[in-house]
Design goal:
A hairpin with a 7-residue loop joins strand 2 and strand 3 (about 45-55). This protein is elongated. The protein has one domain (about 20-115). It starts with 18 loop residues before the first strand and ends with a helix. By secondary structure, the chain is α+β, with helices and mostly antiparallel strands. The chain has helices spanning about 85-90, 95-115, 115-125; strands spanning about 20-25, 30-35, 45-55, 65-75. The protein is built from three helices and four strands, in the order ββββααα. It has a four-stranded antiparallel beta sheet with strand order 1-2-3-4. Helix 1 crosses helix 2 (about 95-115). Bound molecules: zinc ion (ZN). The site of zinc ion (ZN) has 7 residues, from helix 3. Zinc ion binds next to helix 3.
Length: about 130
């Protein structure tokens, strides 16, 4: 599977409280990171979502699409000990690099849960 790079195009939606960062095409295939301040939290809690798909070239030489859908949330006080929460707040403040890193983390988490269907074929062949 390819390395996650952060050299991506950035779009930022305006006129809304939700900050949206969209990546792709590239190594971060079609991944959208949305970040917003939780209502009623006095700006102390931020939530986010990374959604999209990521292309994997597996050891069998096949191409697979991994669906990405990861939710994030955290309080300002957690940012010092939780890297994802720190990234969330940086995104909220408009940091595109932080959004790219968060997207990369979401890909990593999704890949942990993903398994290569080609491996199943191997088992059946036995
Ligand atoms: Zn495969």
């Amino acid at each position: 599977m390819g390395a996650v790079a952060v050299r991506v195009r950035l779009y930022r939606r305006r006129m809304t409280r939700v900050k949206t960062f969209r990546f792709g095409p590239g190594s971060l295939e079609s991944i959208t990171v949305s970040v917003w301040t939780a209502p009623g939290s006095n700006s102390q809690r931020v939530k986010g979502r990374a959604e999209g798909s990521y292309r994997v070239y597996c050891g069998m030489g096949n191409e697979h699409t991994v669906e990405i859908k990861e939710e994030f949330s955290g309080w300002a006080g957690e940012a010092s000990r939780d890297a994802d929460v720190a990234l969330l707040f940086a995104c909220r403040d408009g940091n595109a690099d932080a959004a790219a890193t968060l997207a990369g983390n979401a890909v990593e988490y999704a890949l942990v849960d993903w398994f290569d269907p080609c491996d199943v074929d191997d088992d059946i062949a036995l």
